[in-house]
Amino acid sequence: MDRCAWVNLQNELYVRYHDEEWGVPVHDDRKHFEMIILEGAQAGLSWETILKKRENYRKAFDGFDPEKIAVYDESKVQELLSNEGIVRNRLKIKSAIQNANVFLKIQHEFGTFDAYIWSFVNDVPVQNNFQAIKEVPAKTELSDRIAKALKKRGMNFVGSTIIYAYMQAAGLVNDHTNDCFKKSGCVCRGS
Question: Does 166 qualify as catalytic in the annotation?
Answer without folding.
Answer: no
